[in-house]
Amino acid sequence: MLTTTVADRQRVFIDDARVECAVEAFRCSDREHRSRTLAWVVMPDHVHWLMQLQNGNISRCMAAFKSRSARALNLHRASQGALWQRGFYDHCIRSDESLLKQANYLIENPVRAGLTTKVGEYPYCWTRWPAEADESADVSPPDQRSDVE
């Protein structure tokens, strides 16, 4: 689980086009086989990224994400300069139960921040698992699911 914050906590991710700059950077990391994204949320001034590291190390993966998303956002805004604060927070998840709890915590973040009133309404988050799984839903980790690519 990775978290990084926009420099000076500026609220830059405020519309679809700006959020897409970050989302495309997640997708690119997956396409380059650096990561396997399990969930993400793009908040106005920070992002949370639940991912499984595939190749390289976590610092290089996050540096690539920050660089790619900053370049895209600067192009979109016709600006230049740093987008992200230095560093990032990471938390290693060691069990399937913790993984699902972190995914739910992540997608509940917009509710806790007052950006929406219920899970599923905030447009800038995604998870591989349903938010409120019923007993018949398959909420096993992606590596153990039969419908995962």
From TrEMBL:
InterPro entries: RAYT_transposase, Transposase_17, Transposase_17_sf. This is Transposase. Gene3D superfamilies: Transposase IS200-like. Residues 2-109 form the Transposase IS200-like domain. Pfam families: Y1_Tnp (PF01797). NCBIfam families: REP_Tyr_transpos. It comes from Stenotrophomonas aracearum. It comes from the Bacteria. Transmembrane segments: none annotated.
